[in-house]
Design goal:
The complex is a heterodimer.
Chain A (H helix, E strand, L loop, with lengths): L4 E3 L2 E4 L5 E6 L6 E7 L5 E8 L2 E4 L8 E4 L6 E5 L8 E8 L9 E2 L3 E5 L1
Parallel strand pairs in A: 2-11
Antiparallel strand pairs in A: 1-3, 3-8, 4-5, 4-9, 5-6, 7-8, 9-10, 9-11
Chain B lengths: L2 E3 L3 E5 L4 E8 L6 E6 L6 E6 L3 E5 L2 E6 L4 E6 L8 E8 L5 E3 L3 E6 L1
Parallel strand pairs in B: 2-11
Antiparallel strand pairs in B: 1-3, 3-8, 4-5, 4-9, 6-7, 7-8, 9-10, 9-11
Classes of the chains: A mainly beta, B mainly beta.
Chain lengths: 115, 109
Amino acid sequence: NAGVMQNPRHLVRRRGQEARLRCSPMKGHSHVYWYRQLPEEGLKFMVYLQKENIIDESGMPKERFSAEFPKEGPSILRIQQVVRGDSAAYFCASSPRRGGQETQYFGPGTRLLVL
Amino acid sequence: GQNIDQPTEMTATEGAIVQINCTYQTSGFNGLFWYQQHAGEAPTFLSYNVLDGLEEKGRFSSFLSRSKGYSYLLLKELQMKDSASYLCAGKTGANNLFFGTGTRLTVIP
């Protein structure tokens, strides 16, 4: 039973380029969450999605960042016109359904470095 | 808003017991999670508490007091491989997790 998968594991971009991060949830999971971890800081919630729906994007910067979870395929976190401050580890988590007791399982993360 | 406080670093000896404390403030509360994260790796689920009391799982136990906004993770019979960051995370009513900065535990021989 494969866990949460993310790719790429490492991504290097120059300022102004676009970064696309992919997340495939665990089999049977329909809820996806994205978190960002800056160096020496805790994970910060960005966005919560179900298939074809954004449930909560309260943690996502208003500009340059977008997320989707299409009916088919992985969830994508997209960062346009990257800046050095976007360098961080981006983790995706998934859970089977919405609910207080549902555990979120994390993927290995994508480490983005902006030069 | 939400806030989590936990110590930044702790050191303990192999074979010993260590308790990592966590206090939280949140306007909506839906449970308290503990995750383990080795450097450069994904957080791994350890425990979940939603009711007051102690949950035991092998060498790991987690305690919650909702009235005090307090939790702890207890690790027994420490092993070198337990050296990692331990993340305390509260779950909001909106179903997302808010994390502290984590406690970096170093186990020494």
